[in-house]
Design brief:
Length: 117
């Protein structure tokens, strides 16, 4: 996927809006044919410890509607940082395995960025 950040105000109460577009032509989006667009706000930001975001997909599909919460917690570990991500309110229409795969892919990309430094 590729991303487009439309808005990103990284402070408590700040908002964001992002579109993720599948690179593969057979990818199915939630907001458009190949795109997932979502918007939300930062509820809690504790530097080097925790980020809590509330967001929702921009879609008319009621099965994908509603707010979701994403809590990312960072904990110091030997030689690095443990990252715990908790998703709440994910619509039932999104398979848990798909959500987990996407999260693992994002974490792998993050690791690639920070571990090469």
């Amino acid at each position: 996927m590729s991303s487009h950040v439309h808005e990103f105000d990284a402070r408590e109460g700040g908002s964001f809006r992002i579109s993720l577009t599948y690179d593969a032509p057979n990818g199915t989006g939630k907001s458009a044919a190949r795109t997932d667009t979502y918007h939300g706000r930062f509820v809690k930001l504790v530097p080097d410890e925790q980020v809590v975001e509330v967001f929702e997909f921009e879609t008319a599909d009621p099965e994908l509607g509603g707010e979701m919460t994403l809590t990312t917690t960072l904990t110091a570990a030997d030689g690095g940082t443990d990252v715990l991500i908790v998703h709440e309110g994910i619509p039932d229409s999104i398979p848990a395995a798909d959500n987990e795969t996407g999260t693992r892919m994002a974490l792998a990309n993050l690791a690639g960025l920070v571990e090469t430094g």
